[in-house]
Hints:
alpha/beta
Amino acid sequence: MKHRVVVLGAGYAGAYSAGNLARRLDPADIEITVVNAEPDFVERLRLHQLAAGQDLRERPLADVFAGTGVRLRLARVESIDVERRTVTLDDGELAYDTLLYALGSTVADLGVPGAAEHAFHVTGRAAALRLRDRLDGLDEGGRVLVVGEGLTGIEAATEIAESRPGLKVALAARGELGAWLSPGARRHLRRAFDRLGIAVHEHTTVTRVEPARAIGSDGTVFASEATVWSGGFAVHPIAADSGLDVTGTGQIVVDDTMRSVSHPDVYAAGDSVHAIGENGRPLPMSCASAGFTGMRATGAIIGRLTGRKVSSTALVYYGNHISLGRRDAIFQLVDGDARARSWHLRGRTAARLKNGILRGAAWSMGHPTFGMPARRHRLASAPGRSAEAVVA
């Protein structure tokens, strides 16, 4: 019987990891199955563009994994039994010997009344299309309120304002807009908001969302035919419900090889994992973190199954790249303590850089076995049992 590796999720972390495992492990010993609810790889970092009215290239997962030996199962994960080593799907059950959990995250409504029922978000393709339909239905002068001053909120507000200049776009920020950026980058951000006509309401906490308005903690009423919620991310509760050790946020607690501290047959990558970076701080939920944690997890799985040294990719966070529409952006470097450095890139050059990064990430996902060696590693133990290896 072959060793069964199941990867849950085919986002930036899951799709890369499945391809990397297929590239480096011998198919005579291994069976890799990817479970994903959608048939396409979704460029989550471009979903604000989709919501604003732009069309994105379709990337069918069947094409992504064609010729790799990876099995694709289109299903929704309902639960995990970590004792029986099975995953319950909406179309049946799937057993595993090694599980890589990469289900990512969704929007965090923070328990704000009406946010889940009346607000829109851009953390999934269906959600982005729902917002797009709503924006299509607004008349000239329709009001859009983006709640949240993080990366998602800034990108959503600027993309909508640029793509739909007939709408009145505003952003509600709990603190100061761009407070975490360097002074020069902050000034550029404000100029971009002024250029696009985006009204900014700083030090504003939205405590209720209604169908045509949002209400602040001080009672201020913001008229809004489309409220876009970007108050942060939350992981799916499946990991916590399964009995895996998780943090208070529901992220899986792992060792430095992305292996669950409570269940050694389970690894995690992407937004679902509580990974501590080289600076001693938890990695933020991001595409970059998905790449680094995915590389470390797959390196550990390959090392332990084949008896080879476990490779150790550095877990670092270099900075933020922020789109301000299609022709403007900011690239902000951070130091080892995750504080903004004085150096930053802005304008068209930063926009081209971000577009290049996203195109490169999408290309990597679409070519998971690029450079696949002619000879792949055999398992060091009988199929169905995990071998141990030395951690680098």
